Amino acid sequence: MADTVAPTAFDHGSPGDARRDFLKLVVGATAAAGVGAIAWPLVDSMNPSQDVLALSATEVDLTPIAEGSGITVLWRGKPIFVRYRTAAEIKAAQDVQMSQLIEPQPDSQRVKSGHDKWIVLIGICTHLGCVPLGNKPTDPRGDWGGWFCPCHGSQYDTSGRVRHGPAPLNLYIPPYAFESDTKVKIG
Ligand code: FES
After folding, report:
1. Does the active-site annotation cover 127?
2. What is the pLDDT of residues 158-171, one digit of tens each?
C-alpha cells in the first residue's frame, strides 16, 4: 500500500505551479504594502495632529528676536509675523498722515500700549493670500520698510498697513496679549 503525503502550503502540483503561486503571493504582499503606504498618510491627515491642536494658542519668546528683525510663527495654521521695530521704524509708523493711507489706521491702534516696539501681524497679504517678505533685514521690504509681497508687488509699512496695492487692506492683527515684557501669547 502506497504512503500518502499531506500537501504542504507550496505543494500545489508541478514545480511550475509552485513558482507561479509564490510569485502571486509576493505580488499580493507588495500591493498590500503599497496600499498601506498610500492609505496611512490619508488616514493620518484626517486627524488633527497634536501640534495643530496645541496651536489654538501660541506662546512666543521674544528674547531671541533682534531689533530690526522679525520671526514667523504658526498660529492655527497661519503665519504670524512678530517684529521688533527700531526707533526709526516706530517713528515712521507714527508720523504718517492718515490721508496717505489706503486703509487709514493710526499705528497706536495696531500695537499694544507700552509695547509699541513690537508689531504682531497675520502674515498673509490681503490681496490674494501670499506671505509677504520682510521679516529678515536682508529681505526686500518695499519703499516703506515693512513688508513686500512679491507676487503682485503690494507693499506694507512698519505698522503692516498697505501703502501700495493691489492689496486693498492692511495686514490683519491676530488676538494677542503680552504675558510679560519678553513673552507674547497669540490666540
Ligand atoms: S497676494 Fe500680495 S500682492 Fe498679490
Report:
1. no
2. 999 999 999 999 99
Would you say the CB of residue 167 lies under 6 angstroms from ligand 1?
Answer: yes
Does residue 25 lie within any of the structural domains? yes
> Is 154 near ligand 1, meaning CB less than 6 Å away?
yes
CATH number assigned to the domain comprising residue 168: 2.102.10.10
Q: Which domain holds residue 21?
A: 9-47
Amino acid identity of 34?
A: G
Give the separation between CA 67 and CA 117, rounded to whole angstroms. Answer: 9
Residues of the chain with pLDDT below 50 are 1-48
Q: How far apart are CA 108 and CA 92, in angstroms?
A: 12
Same domain, 25 and 81: no
Read off the amino acid at residue 37: A
